[in-house]
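To the structural biology subgroup,

Please find below the input and predicted structure for Outer arm dynein light chain 1, which we are adding to the shared reference set this quarter. The sequence is reproduced verbatim from the submission form. If anyone notices a discrepancy with their own records, reply to this email rather than editing the shared folder directly, so we keep one authoritative version.
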Amino acid sequence: MNIDTINPSIISPQEELEEIIREYITPDKLVRKLQESKNLDEARSIELKVDSRKTSIGNVGKILPNLSQLNLNNSYFDSIRNLGSSFENLNILWACNCSIKELDGISSFNSLKKLYVNKNLISDLYSITMLENLETLNIESNLVSDIEQLEYLALCPSLKNLTIRNNPIMLKLKITIEKNEKS
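Predicted structure (tokenized):
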């Protein structure tokens, strides 16, 4: 059996800093993405595909202060915290199929009304309890397995629409319902 070993290239701290800066989203980079609008204050919606291991998006909320819709579907970031805390006007966030493991940091999205985080690796919903304006939550195809996680959602006063299909909790709920029906 032949195993190839690849030695990682060694880069200096200066080269590492330059790489980080090069990968960081700047206003100029966003303007190129927003070719139809030169004024970033006018941008209300944007779709990005990012890998937080390579590119920081923590400053997008500051650069686009009036952003109300952000679509990050099929990106990569394991925590909502990677998005930063500057999305003061964000109403709708799509972050489906992004390998998200935790929702820590979501409480800084005060204006959020709709959250679509289906097809991720989320098991803990406690952070969502801080979203007083949340009306729609799609957590389909995640790893929610404890009834306590669903009980947290009762603390969201505006929540009207919930999609939880294809989570381990659904099997537990089905078994409970079937047992109650047989009794």
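Summary notes: DSSP finds five helices and six strands in the chain. Strands lie at 45-47, 69-71, 92-94, 114-116, 136-138, 161-163.

Regards,
Lab coordination
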